[in-house]
Amino acid sequence: MAEVIWGLATSHVPSIGAAMDRGKTDDPNWKALFDGYAPARAWLAEHQPDVAIVVYNDHANGIDLDFVPTFGLGTAERYEVADEGFGRRPVPDVIGHPELSLHLVESLIDEEFDLTVFQELAVDHGFTVPLSVWTPDPGDAWPCPVIPLLVNVIQYPQPTAARCYALGQALGRAIRSYPEDITVGVLGTGGMSHQLAGARAGFINPDFDHMWMETIETDPGQLAAMSREELIRKAGSEGIELIMWLVMRGAMDDRVTKVHSDYFVPASNTAAGIALFDNRNGQPA
Ligand code: DHB
Ligand code: FE
């Protein structure tokens, strides 16, 4: 039986990756953000999973805007890093885990989540920046195979928060029904509050973010009850990316142990948050 050992929620702001790629993490504008990652990175380095699943959204880099699936899952052996217009990031391509992917596709479709299946997919900052937050120096390869689980957060109507939480719960069941004894880490990416365009461009809501950070641990069902309109009003039009944290949280047990969290404003135009949860209930840290 496979087991979810941890969940990591993190923002995926592209300039966080650029700061790392250009050696600017000690610059005064960035140091506090990266210092805030250190305890999570140290714990994660001691708790390497066999496979990771990254719940993320593409930003019209790997997938054309004419074909945006509500939910999708990658089944490839390998995922190329997308060139988003400035050359590809100097990070390794992603090795997939087709066997677990196929099990997840089958289990989730049996649970009536009719996912789009990607046999080929280039992954953008929504995926690679969270991997860098987790593993700053991957060398030639990321620490384990990684599976992309895509959520549409960029075109109206996005899936509801409740549907994302339910998808996460089905994902947890699917992982636990995998016959091999492997450990799995789940990343929920995006957020926190931000709005990149329109009359409210630059909008950030720290009160909302702090409420979200606390409640995702203790009462995710309360967050799942929010409508997309309420989420956009309170977190900004791109802050709705936070629904992907609910997929991660749904895959975990009702009770989790927070290992570390941090909040930094602003990273580019975004409130950047990180939250790491241990799902190995009752085991020593
Ligand atoms: C920014 C944030 C995002 O979530 C994103 O996908 C792109 C840009 C930003 O704040 O610059
Ligand atoms: Fe984004």
From TrEMBL:
- Domain Extradiol ring-cleavage dioxygenase class III enzyme subunit B positions: 9-270
Q: Which InterPro entries match?
A: Xdiol_dOase_suB
So which domain of life are we looking at?
Bacteria
Query: Mind listing the UniProt keywords for this protein, alphabetically?
Result: Dioxygenase, Oxidoreductase
The record's section on SUPFAM superfamilies has:
LigB-like
Glycoprotein keyword on record: no
**Molecular function GO terms recorded:** ferrous iron binding; oxidoreductase activity, acting on single donors with incorporation of molecular oxygen, incorporation of two atoms of oxygen
Q: What is this protein called?
A: Protocatechuate 4,5-dioxygenase beta subunit
